[in-house]
Structures are given as C-alpha cells and as structure tokens.
Amino acid sequence: MANNEIEQITTNGTSDKKRSKSKTEINHNNDYSYISDYLQVTNRIFKQMLISSLEGADKIVKRLNTSEKINYIR
Q: Which end of the chain offers a freer environment for a tag, N or C, measured as fewer CB atoms within 10 Å?
C-alpha cells in the first residue's frame, strides 16, 4: 500500500508541474501572437493598416517603395 501511495503522489506532483508549465507557455505564446499579427502581414496589408491608423499617412505610405523602408517602419 505504501508503494501505491508514493506512486500516486509522484504522479500527481508531476502532472501538477506539467499543468503549471503549460499555463506559462500559453501566456508566453499569447504575448508573441499579439506582436506577430502586424509583423507577419503582407506589405500591402501593412500599408493599409498605416493609412487607416494615422491621419495623413497616405503621404508616408507613398514613400514606402522598398522592402527595407517598410521593414524599418514596422
């Protein structure tokens, strides 16, 4: 009986650690998903996002004619 109790405690202890680790990973992944939304869109969509978010941004977007310039703004 004592061996069974020890095994149950060990199993429960390990599963609790796995659960807490997965919660940490989920929170960590949510942080990255928030940032990556605007970083992984196409250049055309990114330009549309800029135009809709800033007043007068259409003048800025006209000058973003290379990938280097767009990546700098991102």
A: N
